[in-house]
Design a protein that fits this description.
Elements lengths: L3 H26 L4 E3 L4 E7 L5 E15 L5 E12 L2 E5 L1 E5 L5 E3 L3 E3 L4 E8 L12 E11 L6 E10 L1 H9 L3 E7 L4 E7 L5 H8 L1
Antiparallel strand pairs: 1-3, 2-3, 2-12, 3-9, 4-5, 4-8, 4-10, 6-7, 6-9, 10-11, 12-13
Length: 207
């Protein structure tokens, strides 16, 4: 017959074993999943610093990617899908970088549990059809293709709206439409942005 102290010792030993097994599984076996935070800003508009080339539209966002496991995740590629009504357009050219402006073509990215924050740019293939941001509601979906997973994982989805005036400005060129996240209202706030003219561009206008 076990004494009370012996029973307590056995219970403690069993709990210690369970904790050890869980820790071992969490560190070495658990693959976890890939997550992304709410993008602080989303951009619709032409590619390039001067935003002149409306024939090359771009979607841009900034977010933190992180893994829920100790082992981390390896992203093979990322892309976004833009839904409007019955139409769907995939922006499958993925470029990322930091705030210093150093951009690289996405070709594999390791994401650990600490997370990494980058600017992500998504473009259409050069030989693709022309795409315009016409007025209406859009559903933006962000996908990541992860190493050893057969199908891409949907990371994020949000509905955004482009007004008639915003669409007209985007078609003119030199305008970009930004959606900034407002934590107080729990929604995105759109605004149009036009880069400042260079000295040579200003000279041409004043001639």
């Amino acid at each position: 017959m076990l004494t009370l102290m012996e029973k307590i010792s056995l219970i403690i030993a069993g709990l210690s074993l369970l904790v050890s097994v869980f820790t071992l599984w969490k560190i070495y076996l658990d693959k976890g999943s890939l997550k992304m935070t709410q993008p602080t800003t989303i951009f619709f508009g032409p590619d390039g610093k001067d935003m002149k080339d409306v024939k090359n539209p771009k979607i841009y966002l900034r977010t933190l990617l992180f893994s829920t496991s100790q082992k981390g995740q390896v992203i093979e590629s990322m892309h976004v899908k833009l839904h409007r009504g019955e139409s769907v357009q995939t922006f499958n050219i993925w470029i990322y970088g930091d705030r210093k402006g150093e951009l690289v073509r996405g070709s594999g990215l390791y994401v650990g549990k600490e997370g990494i924050a980058y600017n992500h740019h998504f473009l259409l293939p050069k030989e693709g059809s022309i795409y315009e941001f016409v007025p209406g509601k859009y559903r933006l979906e962000v996908y990541a293709s992860i190493l050893n997973k057969k199908t891409p994982v949907k990371m994020f989805t949000v509905t955004l709206e482009v007004s008639d005036n915003q669409s007209t400005k985007l078609k003119e060129g030199r305008y970009g439409l930004y959606f900034d996240w407002g934590p107080e209202s729990n929604s995105y706030h759109p605004y149009l942005h036009q880069p400042e003219l260079t000295s040579s561009e200003l000279y041409q206008l004043l001639r």
